[in-house]
């Protein structure tokens, strides 16, 4: 069995940002037009009037202050309220593969690896833009990687589940190095006209290189001490979009074909599940939460992260212990914990331990415990 290490990460950030002020102005204009258009039905009590949103509501509910998107004009158009992403020919690279490749190139450069040295590609994301061919195979082709590639989906936990699959391949010797990518175009599966969730998501792509420790070229590497995954069925976070939709002969209200959640139930049920999962994982490795220098948690909701860290540490975490990127990037599904790891690891010393954890629909939770090492410490 080989030792598996993370030697590089990559991040693609879209060029467009939407602030809460901009989002609220657009949403409230949509609400005004909707209520005006249905004023008679509302007056007769046949239809409920839509309520406006506010910056204060968004920041109190989530901690989000802005988000990055691939298209802002479509999202902010009160007559549209979803991104405009034109169809591409089958001969052109897909938008999901394109952003994955951009993050992947950065991860490869950081790891000191050429694409020809990668033996497998895993595309792990909350939604795939098509059923087949796999986005991972398209990324593999675009980068000139040999070996194998496949897609996998465990919603917001996809990245940690993907890292475990990459780790298994490396440890077993079926791959020297694996590229795991997380292209998340969350703006396309968000209902921007729903006050309870219109502010939640943003777009991004991340990438991670996992390889054999004895072959690593990178001066900085994170030894994967252990991975642990867990799932428990729940419909409290759900998206019913799929290829069978056209067979249902259903028209009209198709709200269930986009992201939906019972936020209060999710908060109440997921937070203890995640804290217990991470605590048990650390115990199995003869570690304690207090011995962990950094928790790179899924960036879904600021209060959730604070509560999970508080349950583990028996006190409020410092910004250094549980860094937040949610305020700038919003919820980027599977990519959130990887963004936090990408941005907030350089200051760790050799020997420091950290936990990458993601959690979400399923329910699902994954944790990856890592220890930093450098050439100086070898």
Could you give me the name of the CATH homologous superfamily of the domain at 222-377? Answer: Thiolase/Chalcone synthase
- Main sheet: which strands, in order across? 5-4-6-7-1-8-13-12-11
Oligomer: single chain
Large-scale geometry: globular
Estimated radius of gyration:
21 Å
Highest-level CATH class of the domain at 222-377: Alpha Beta
Q: If you consult CATH, what is the topology of the domain at 222-377?
A: Peroxisomal Thiolase, Chain A, domain 1
Sheet-strand content, in percent, reads 15-25%
Low-confidence stretches: none
Describe what this molecule looks like in 3D.
The chain has 378 residues and is α+β, with helices and mostly antiparallel strands. The chain has a domain at 222-377: Thiolase/Chalcone synthase (Peroxisomal Thiolase, Chain A, domain 1), CATH 3.40.47.10. It is built from eleven helices and 13 strands. The chain has helices at residues 20-37, 39-43, 55-62, 73-76, 95-111, 135-143, 158-172, 263-284, 302-313, 326-329, 336-343; strands spanning 4-12, 16-19, 66-69, 120-124, 148-152, 177-185, 203-212, 220-231, 237-238, 260-261, 294-297, 353-360, 364-374. α5 (95-111) crosses α6. It is globular and about 70 Å long. The model has no long low-confidence stretch (mean pLDDT 96).
């Amino acid at each position: 069995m080989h030792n598996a290490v993370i030697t590089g990460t990559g991040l693609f950030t879209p060029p467009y940002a939407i602030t809460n002020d901009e989002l609220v102005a657009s949403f409230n204009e949509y609400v005004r037009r909707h209520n005006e258009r249905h004023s008679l039905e509302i007056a007769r009590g046949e239809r409920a009037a839509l309520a406006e949103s506010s910056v204060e509501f968004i920041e109190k509910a989530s901690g989000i202050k802005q988000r990055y998107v691939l298209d802002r004009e479509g999202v902010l158009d009160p007559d549209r309220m979803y991104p405009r992403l034109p169809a591409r020919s089958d001969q052109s690279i897909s938008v999901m593969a394109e952003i994955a490749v951009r993050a992947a190139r950065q991860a490869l450069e950081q790891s000191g690896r050429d694409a020809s040295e990668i033996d497998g590609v895993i595309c792990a994301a909350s939604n795939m833009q098509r059923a087949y061919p796999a986005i991972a195979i398209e990324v593999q082709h675009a980068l000139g990687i040999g070996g194998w590639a496949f897609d996998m989906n465990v919603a917001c936990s996809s990245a940690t589940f993907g890292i475990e699959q990459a780790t298994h391949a490396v440890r077993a010797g079926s791959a020297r190095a694996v590229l795991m990518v997380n292209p998340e175009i969350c703006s396309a599966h968000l209902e921007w006209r729903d006050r309870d969730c219109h502010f939640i998501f943003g777009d991004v792509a991340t990438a991670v290189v996992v390889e054999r420790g004895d072959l690593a070229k990178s001066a900085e590497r994170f030894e994967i001490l252990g991975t642990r995954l867990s799932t428990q069925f729940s419909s409290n976070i759900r998206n019913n979009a799929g290829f069978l939709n056209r067979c249902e002969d259903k028209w009209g209200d198709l709200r269930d074909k986009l992201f939906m959640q019972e936020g209060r139930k999710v908060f109440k049920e997921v937070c203890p599940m995640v804290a217990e999962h991470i605590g048990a994982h650390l115990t199995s490795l003869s570690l304690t939460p207090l011995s962990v220098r950094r928790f790179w948690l899924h960036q879904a909701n600021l209060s959730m992260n604070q509560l999970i860290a508080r349950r583990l540490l028996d006190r409020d975490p410092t910004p250094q212990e549980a860094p937040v990127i949610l305020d700038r990037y919003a919820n980027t599904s599977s990519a959130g914990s990887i963004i936090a790891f990408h941005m907030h690891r350089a200051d760790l010393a050799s020997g420091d331990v950290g936990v990458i954890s993601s959690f979400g629909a399923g329910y699902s939770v994954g944790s990856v415990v890592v220890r930093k090492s450098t050439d100086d410490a070898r």
